[in-house]
Automatic annotation (TrEMBL):
InterPro entries: EF-Ts_dimer_sf, Transl_elong_EFTs/EF1B, Transl_elong_EFTs/EF1B_dimer, Transl_elong_Ts_CS, UBA-like_sf. GO terms for molecular function: translation elongation factor activity. Transmembrane segments: none annotated. This is Elongation factor Ts. It is found in: Cytoplasm. Residues 79-82 are annotated as: Involved in Mg(2+) ion dislocation from EF-Tu.
Length: 291
C-alpha cells in the first residue's frame, strides 16, 4: 500500500508521533496503519530505554486535595520546555487525580496504579518519554488523609505545598500558611524534628566562620550556641517570622488560631538532583547524527 499524506496524518493523530516517524513506520509496515502503531510503540520504547539514564531535573510539582485526602507529586522532565507541553500537563493532571482517588501511600504503589487508558503510571511515563522525546518520570509522591488539609501550587509550577492541620484553622489562614512554606522553605516543622546530624554540621560551619579568639570559654560557647539556635530557627516553620505578620512567629500565629500542624510537605522541582551541565552545541550535533 502506498504511503500517502492522509495516511501519515491519520497515524500522527492516532499516536501523536512526529511526522517523519509516522512516515518511517508506514514505510516499514507497507502502509498497514495497525502495524505502524505497533512499530512506533516498539521503536519509541527502545528510544525511551536509551533515555532512562539521563538526568531529569526539570518538570512540574502539583498538589491536589479533596475533602479528606491530599497528595503532592513531582514529575520530572529533562528541560523546562516540556512543562508547557499540553500532553505532559494532561498526563500530570491524570496521574495526580488517580493517586488522589486511590488508597496508595508510597511511590512504588503509585507507579503501579492504572490510568484511564489501562496503562500503569510507570508505563505511561515510559510511553511519554517515547512520544515527547525526553525522559519523563514520577519522582516522588506524598499522600495524607485528614479533616483539615490545605494545598498551594506556585504559579511557576515548580513549588507545591501540602499541610495537614489539626484544629479549626480557617481555609484562608491554612492557605496563607502554605504560601509561607512555599516562600520561606522550612525544612522542619518544629525544633524537635531537627536531626542531630544537621546540628553537628551547622555547628562545624559556625566554628569555622566565627572568631571567638580571646573570649572566655563560657562566652564563646554562648556565642556559638546562639548562632546555632538562630540557624535552626531559620529552617523550622514554627520558629520563623510569619511573612504576613512578621511581629509574630508562625508557631504563635497557629496557637492564636488553636491549631497545629500534623504533616508538612514542600516539593520543589529538581531539589536534591545534581544537574549535568551539557555542551548544547555538541548535544545538537549528536542529535543530528541520530544518537
Amino acid at each position: 500500500m502506498a504511503v500517502t499524506t492522509d495516511l501519515i496524518k491519520k497515524l500522527r493523530e492516532m499516536t501523536s508521533a512526529g511526522m517523519m516517524d509516522c512516515k518511517k513506520a508506514l514505510e516499514a509496515t507497507n502502509g498497514d496503519i495497525d502495524e505502524a502503531v505497533v512499530w512506533l510503540r516498539e521503536n519509541g520504547l527502545a528510544k525511551a530505554a536509551k533515555k532512562a539514564d539521563r538526568v531529569a531535573a526539570e518538570g512540574v510539582a502539583l498538589a491536589v486535595a479533596n475533602s479528606n485526602r491530599a497528595i503532592v507529586i513531582e514529575v520530572n522532565s529533562e528541560t523546562d520546555f516540556v512543562s508547557k507541553n499540553e500532553k505532559f500537563t494532561k498526563l500530570i493532571d491524570e496521574i495526580a487525580n488517580v493517586i488522589l482517588n486511590s488508597k496508595v501511600s508510597t511511590l512504588e504503589e503509585a507507579l503501579d496504579l492504572k490510568l484511564s487508558n489501562g496503562s500503569k503510571i510507570s508505563e505511561a511515563c515510559i510511553e511519554a518519554t517515547a512520544t515527547i522525546g525526553e525522559k519523563i518520570s514520577l519522582r516522588r509522591v506524598a499522600c495524607v488523609e485528614g479533616n483539615n488539609l490545605a494545598v498551594y501550587n506556585h504559579s511557576n509550577k515548580r513549588i507545591s505545598v501540602l499541610i495537614n492541620f489539626d484544629g479549626e484553622i480557617s481555609k484562608d489562614d491554612a492557605y496563607n500558611i502554605c504560601m509561607h512554606v512555599a516562600a520561606m522553605s522550612p525544612k522542619y516543622v518544629s525544633t524537635s524534628e531537627v536531626p542531630q546530624e544537621f546540628k553537628d554540621s551547622e555547628m562545624h560551619i559556625i566554628k569555622e566562620t566565627t572568631d571567638v579568639t580571646g573570649k572566655p570559654a563560657n562566652v564563646a560557647e554562648n556565642i556559638l550556641k546562639g548562632k546555632l539556635n538562630k540557624k535552626i530557627a531559620e529552617v523550622t516553620l514554627l520558629e520563623q517570622s510569619y511573612v504576613i505578620d512578621e511581629k509574630q512567629t508562625v508557631g504563635n500565629f497557629l496557637k492564636s488560631k488553636k491549631s497545629s500542624i500534623k504533616d508538612m510537605f514542600r516539593f520543589e522541582v529538581g531539589e536534591g538532583i545534581e544537574k549535568v551541565v551539557s555542551d548544547f552545541a555538541a548535544e545538537v550535533a549528536a542529535q543530528l547524527k541520530g544518537n
